Amino acid sequence: MQDKLSLFKANAFKSPSRCDSEFTKAQNARYKISAPFQVQYPISALRDKKEGFVNMEFDLSQDGIPININIIESYPERMFNRESERNLSRARYELKSAGISTNNTCLSVQLNYFLQDKT
């Protein structure tokens, strides 16, 4: 799967990011998913046997709900975008350590869509 992902990334549609990559890494390290979500595979992609990924950046509301979702990379272009936004909006995040966060911007997540081999 890593080979597929590398190929997909080489051919991916990319949008400008509004976040600094080092800041995003630091933010991702501060938060964890408190309410996991099940990634739903888009029916049209399943029917057409398409695989791909979507990389998104987002902010968190005070309640840990992803908001301001921005797709910064996807393959195939737009195939998985809508479902990825829906999937991410079902997640809930919280700080890994106790305290109050004054900055809950510029987190990121990548959702991968791979079909199961039936061998």
Entry keywords:
119 residues, alpha+beta, TolA/TonB C-terminal domain, two-stranded antiparallel ribbon, 4 helices
Kindly describe this structure.
The protein is α+β, with helices and mostly antiparallel strands. The protein has a single domain (2-113), classed as TolA/TonB C-terminal domain (2-Layer Sandwich). It contains four helices and six strands. The chain has helices spanning 2-10, 21-30, 43-47, 81-89; strands at residues 13-14, 31-35, 52-60, 66-75, 92-95, 107-113. A four-stranded antiparallel sheet has the order 1-4-3-6. Strands 2-5 form a two-stranded antiparallel sheet. The longest helix is centred in the N-terminal third of the chain and has 10 residues, at 21-30. The protein is globular, with a radius of gyration of 15 Å. The mean pLDDT is 90.
Detail the topology: elements first, then pairings.
Blueprint lengths: L1 H9 L2 E2 L6 H10 E5 L7 H5 L4 E9 L5 E10 L5 H9 L2 E4 L11 E7 L6
Antiparallel strand pairs: 1-4, 2-5, 3-4, 3-6
What spatial order of strands do you see in the largest sheet? 1-4-3-6
CATH-derived topology: TolA/TonB C-terminal domain
Number of helices: 4
Total number of domains: 1
Per the principal axes of the C-alpha atoms, what is the gross shape?
globular
Proper CATH architecture: 2-Layer Sandwich
Uncertain segments: none
N to C succession of SSEs:
HEHEHEEHEE
Structural class: alpha+beta
Largest beta-sheet details: 4 strands, antiparallel
How far apart are the first and last residues' alpha carbons, in Å?
Answer: 15 Å
CATH class: Alpha Beta
Helix percentage range: 25-40%
Mean pLDDT: 90
Strand content: 25-35%
Number of strands: 6
CATH superfamily: TonB
